[in-house]
Fold this protein.
Amino acid sequence: MAEVGSEEVARDPEVRALRARRKRAEQELDILKKALVIFGQPTR
């Protein structure tokens, strides 16, 4: 079995797909946090 962080693991298609999903989820979370700030402000 390959060690975590090894080049073999980094090339694994499943690992690459999971990393891409994680990156997208992090981006979506950032967008939602910004929207919460914007829509959480009191209206005038």
